[in-house]
Write a structure and sequence with these properties.
oxidoreductase, Cyt_P450_sf, Cyt_P450_CS, three-stranded antiparallel sheet, 492 residues, globular, binds protoporphyrin IX containing FE, five-stranded mixed sheet
Length: 492
């Protein structure tokens, strides 16, 4: 009750604050009489703008409808008011190209302060310019690019097999999203920190859940709120990281572990920062946390959606099984390697088609750094611009029969530039995409060779908040393949 009251007070305060901010932005823009006009469109209700309309489109899992109705009314560029800020939306690949080539010149990343605080001052998400570039290339070169990742595919293969044995083997029915999240968590805990079980594993699992549960909630740092729990989880995770780092330092000095053992060891021992010093512990901790959180729901959501589409399109599942059997036979049953995951071409088309039809990350906000003109309209400094993947991914011209699940549309080369961007673009394009692809290929390999599944409710509702969420967590009936069908008796 106290919390409900407090929620109300804080909400009113936040609304008041943001309205003042928005009014200020509007006054600034009214100074620009000589400039091109503002884009057409409506700001909607006081305080709330058109946030409720967007929210209801997301609840109905039809975000493109919010944009399409306005594009039909105003044209390819329109203004609106979302999440307490005047916002401009522009449709089409030409804008995507413009936007992503002007990062840090005309626009910049913008996170609510509350999220920035949770991720930490040294997080890649909070950095811009040279430091941002350096952090990304450091993580790419050490682990998240092909040259780093290829060393870890056999280990992913091992973790996947153990996951299926422990979690799927004896079950008749599962809540798929929950179970796949456990897989994603085990992978990160092992590959980033070499933690596979025990108290540290359990406490991090608990903390990551609390962190993810509070990151998108009202930012009230008061005992009992989801945001407060997330802040506590951050502190607890950093304490655990400290203990692991201290232990690792000793182990490396004593030669007990290789410096290429996992992401942590690689970061601790083989990397230098701008000034030629070893990367700091603060930078390591904030970024391990950021990459961990960024991977947590994205991979599990995408895989769960793929399982749904494969169940609803058995001919596609048949193609995936065929491809995976061929890969397994060609290697005589040995552990998967990097090249195997890149040979899974049709399976990758399935994931891309999944991300086209039901994007895991629907888009992002940017803030404008100065007034600028686009197509005869002024976009004022301090406004937000919203980039959304949905409109072009559901365009009839670019993707004929856009509502049809058709992985083969991705065969024979990528779609036209800036039309299909599930991992974003430009300076902030997802640095975890190769990792995500590899993990998803390994998971699907073991899944389709060993299990059959059916959806308990093929019409299970999905809402977007902010990622697609199955209302019942995707209930699946599963069935282990046996005898002739089970072809995955691998040699380890
Ligand atoms: C299917 C899975 C995934 C999808 C669809 C996805 C999508 C995206 C998108 C669209 C962005 C750009 C957001 C923007 O423009 O502001 C992004 C950023 C990011 N992603 Fe992913 N992601 C996925 C998986 C992962 C994984 C597995 C990791 C880590 C291992 C990761 C780490 C990050 C990080 C750290 C950023 C922020 C980059 C920066 O600010 O420079 N993502 N992701």
């Amino acid at each position: 009750m106290l919390l409900t009251l407090l929620d109300c007070v804080v909400t009113v305060f936040v609304l008041f604050y943001f309205t003042l901010f928005s009014c200020f932005s509007c006054v600034t823009s009214s100074d620009m009489q000589k400039k091109a006009p503002l884009p057409p469109g409506q700001f909607g209700l006081p305080f709330l703008g058109e946030s409720l309309e967007l929210q209801s489109a997301l609840q109905a899992n039809k975000p493109h409808q919010f944009f399409n109705t306005r594009v039909a009314k105003y044209g390819e560029i329109f203004k609106t008011h979302l999440l307490f800020s005047p916002t401009v939306f522009v449709d089409g690949p030409e804008w995507n190209k413009f936007l992503f080539s002007n990062e840090n010149k005309l626009i910049s990343t913008t996170w609510p302060m509350s999220i920035g605080k949770l991720l930490g001052a040294k997080s890649v998400a909070n950095k811009i310019g040279e430091e941002h570039k350096w952090l990304r290339s450091t993580f790419h070169a050490s682990f998240f690019g092909p040259s780093g990742l290829r060393n870890f595919v056999p280990r992913m293969d091992k973790i996947a097999r153990s996951h299926f044995e422990q979690t799927w083997e004896s079950k008749g029915e599962i809540i798929a999203v929950k179970v796949i999240k456990q897989f994603a968590f085990s992978l990160v805990a092992d590959l980033f920190l070499s933690i596979t079980k025990g108290l540290e594993f359990e406490s991090m699992a608990h903390d990551v859940e609390a962190f993810v549960g509070g990151i998108m909630k009202l930012p009230i740092d008061f005992p009992g709120t989801a945001y407060h729990k997330a802040m506590l989880a951050r502190k607890s995770l950093l304490r655990t990281f400290d203990m692991i780092i201290a232990r690792r330092q000793k182990d490396i000095e004593e030669g007990k572990v290789s410096v290429h053992h996992d992401l942590l060891s690689i970061l601790m021992k083989t990397l230098l920062d701008h000034e030629g010093h070893v990367i700091t512990n603060e930078t390591i901790k904030d970024n391990i946390l950021t990459y961990w959180i960024a991977s947590h729901d994205t991979v599990s959501t995408t895989l769960s959606l793929a399982l749904k589409y494969l169940f609803l399109n058995p001919h596609c599942l048949h193609e995936v099984v065929k491809e995976q059997k061929e890969i397994m036979k060609a290697k005589g049953g040995t552990t998967l390697n990097w090249q195997d995951t890149r040979n899974m071409k049709y399976t990758w088309c399935v994931i891309q088609e999944t991300l086209r039809l039901q994007p895991t990350v629907g888009g992002a906000f940017r803030v404008t750094l100065k007034d600028f003109e686009y197509k005869g309209f002024t976009i004022p400094k301090g406004w937000k611009v919203l980039w959304s993947v949905s409109p072009s991914q559901m365009s009839h011209e670019i993707f004929p029969h856009p509502t049809k699940f058709d992985p083969r549309r991705f065969e024979g080369g990528p779609p036209p530039p800036f039309t299909f961007m599930p991992f974003g673009g430009g300076h902030r394009t997802c640095p975890g995409q190769e990792y995500a692809r590899t993990v998803m290929m390994v998971f699907l390999h073991h899944l389709v060779l060993n299990y059959e599944w059916s959806m308990v409710n093929p019409n299970e509702k999905i809402v977007i908040n902010p990622m697609p969420i199955f209302q019942k967590g995707l209930q699946l009936k599963i069935h282990k393949k046996i005898g002739e069908k089970a072809t995955n008796n691998l040699v380890t």
